[in-house]
């Protein structure tokens, strides 16, 4: 009985030593390289924080980022990438940290838990450039994403408060994965603006990740109609991130769908809209999408990392974004035009150009090229349901938390 106890103690000692030496390493580096790359919050250090890193998505995403992000650093660049892992579950986060820290990539790590005596969430967040949030309850069978709303809105509101306290809101990007994305992005936006009275342009840097819908649309289309060039087809998916609010734009791949009849196409659309349910059912009460979600999020984080490392000046991506700023003005070029086409909804998943200052231009033209089924059947249902989801988000009582 003594032996396992001893092992655990020495493991945590090792962890403590490891984390403190990492800290020293960091401080050292920051002092040496006092040339400031203007895009980053801290000199030569790109910090990605994952809030909810101990969960199913969080663990898989942490692994993908730890094994892949360093490929984006240019040769001879002094830049370090740091992954900051936060969760309320201290045991799991310490285990995750120990495990990931044996992986031979030059990405530094730190693990943080609430009340961990080392600064908790503040230490996890401070100087972050990108915050990814998979925190919250996963979906159980029979639950819709919207049933999760009340539980996750509280969790996300508390995390938003911590972000407002610890981060430079004129720089940081917040990427939200937690469901229901349709309502939680409005919760975060509203909380930052009306509760914290923040006007640092953070609305342009708050994005709900809907990329799993694009990943599914591409995969399912390719199963039915493989493209002959060996590449996966690109299928834009717009609207929201739950059931009927998800609008896959298969008409953009007219070649590949030309051989399908109407029932086949409708089935394909519905598979994308309800793809999450296939996983919830198959996991039989033990979870929802984790690996595929982490993969989809990793692609988005990769784009943001390239942007903040200065490898690109901008990229185009579909995410669920606010269309109005804190003064109810259009967030950027194209938002007025988009809003006039979507019943004045204030949030929508749409292709947009992103620069280091945030969403810069909304590329709404896709709405002008929908086929009649997408335009007259899918979009109206999407708008009707999305409006309700957005309103529940905006009406969420901040004082309840
Ligand atoms: C990442 O950026 C590239 C370049 O703009 C774009 O083609 C790609 O779709 C983006 N990926 C995601 C997942 O948004």
Automatic annotation (TrEMBL):
Lineage: Eukaryota, Fungi, Dikarya, Ascomycota, Saccharomycotina
EC number: 1.1.1.37
Biological processes per GO annotation: malate metabolic process; tricarboxylic acid cycle
Domain Lactate/malate dehydrogenase C-terminal: 210-396
Annotated ranges, domain Lactate/malate dehydrogenase N-terminal: 47-188
Cleaved signal peptide residues: 1-28
UniProt-recorded Gene Ontology molecular function terms: L-malate dehydrogenase (NAD+) activity
Record keywords, A-Z: NAD, Oxidoreductase, Signal, Tricarboxylic acid cycle
Xref: Pfam families: Ldh_1_C (PF02866), Ldh_1_N (PF00056)
NCBIfam families per the UniProt record, alphabetical: MDH_euk_gproteo
Keyword Oxidoreductase recorded: yes
Known partners and oligomeric status: Homodimer.
Family affiliation: Belongs to the LDH/MDH superfamily. MDH type 1 family.
A GO cellular-component term linked to this record: cytosol
UniProt-listed InterPro entries: Lactate/malate_DH_C, Lactate/malate_DH_N, Lactate_DH/Glyco_Ohase_4_C, Malate_DH_AS, Malate_DH_type1, NAD(P)-bd_dom_sf
Protein name as catalogued: malate dehydrogenase
